[in-house]
Amino acid sequence: MNRVALFLRHFRDMYRYYTRWLPSVRQDTDVFEKGYRIVPDMLSVEECSRIRHDFDRALHIELPDDTKTGTYIVARREAGDQYDKHVFHLMNYQSIAPWIVERLAAPIQELFKAEVGHDFRVNSYSIQVDWPDTQTKRGYHNDSFLVNYKAFIYLNDVLDVDADGPYTVIPRSHKDIGRKVFNLMVNFFRSWVPLDNMDFLYPDTKKHAILGKAGTGILSCQALAHKGWHNHTTNKRYVLILYLVPATTPQKEWKLGKEFKLQHTITADDAARKAA
Ligand SMILES: O=C(O)CCC(=O)C(=O)O
Ligand SMILES: [Fe+2]
Questions:
Q1: Which of 226, 231, 242, 256 gets mutated to test ligand 1 (max ligand atoms within 8 A of its CB)?
Q2: Which residue's C-alpha comes closest to atom 4 of ligand 1?
């Protein structure tokens, strides 16, 4: 889609989000009030370690066969933009680890029902890993202007802002209108940035960087201005991401980022070095 059409579509989506979606959701919850809710101990330390191990094996030893499983690894550095050169995603993890659906689908769907007041389905599970990166992390953004929720579960301890590079949000920004319209309009004239960047009017002084032990869950409205902390200096961070869609959305193949699919395994050194 060309940039003008995309710009117009974002405006339409934003209009629908504010006029139809937000008035329809439960209003007395954290996800409405702040845009996110923390849920401790969603996974055990052993479960986190098992998922980290599956990721490491897939990235370094044997890539999943996506023709059989639909599971593949996206290397953000293949996207050809200036962002996230140290970030890797193992997509559709549930196809090689069906236990994760048994373990998390029902509780997460219940939590979102209670927070938002609508029925959701977990559409896909992915593992994101960030190597330390102080140069290329994408700044504040929205993940589109549609109804968009994710659950994140930290798979290792994320206890220090600079050392661990946490998921970082501007609380309550999912209800802003003016700042978002301003960013969208400015981005239209900055052809080198994605239209959903939120680079302006959201200073880090207003941030909440979400820290937590391995197993900590974050229920997040992706209309928040959010980012992975950009000054991530020391420890690799593993996160399980659950993509939620309204329960009425038809199930279809989940191919997000497949055009940037890794074709061969890489070493940890390579993942860290190329990202610099
Ligand atoms: O924690 C991060 O790295 C940010 C992730 C993000 O922006 C997303 O999943 O939409
Ligand atoms: Fe995002």
A1: 226
A2: 228
Q: Compute, in angstroms, the gap from residue 232 CA to the centroid of ligand 1.
A: 13
Q: In CATH terms, is domain 3-274 a member of 3.20.20.150?
A: no
DSSP 118: S
- Tell me how far the alpha carbon of residue 222 lies from the centroid of ligand 2, in angstroms: 7
Give this prediction's pTM: 0.97
Q: What residue ranges do the domains of the chain occupy? A: 3-274
Query: Residue 232: how many CA atoms within 13 Å on its side-chain side?
Result: 33
Counting ligands in written order, which one lies closest to the CA of residue 228? 1
pLDDT in tens, the chain (276 residues): 799 999 999 999 999 999 999 999 999 999 999 999 999 999 999 999 999 999 999 999 999 999 999 999 999 998 888 999 999 999 999 999 999 999 999 999 999 999 999 999 999 999 999 999 999 999 999 999 999 999 999 999 999 999 999 999 999 999 999 999 999 999 999 999 999 999 999 999 999 999 999 999 999 999 999 999 999 999 999 999 999 999 999 988 999 999 999 999 999 999 987 655
Atom of ligand 1 nearest to the CA of 138: 7
Quick check: helix, strand or coil at residue 61?
Answer: coil
Q: How far does the centroid of ligand 1 lie from the alpha carbon of residue 228, in Å?
A: 5
Look up residue 253 and give its amino acid: E
Element housing 15 (H / E)? helix 3-16
Angle, alpha carbons 142-144-145 (nearest 5°): 95
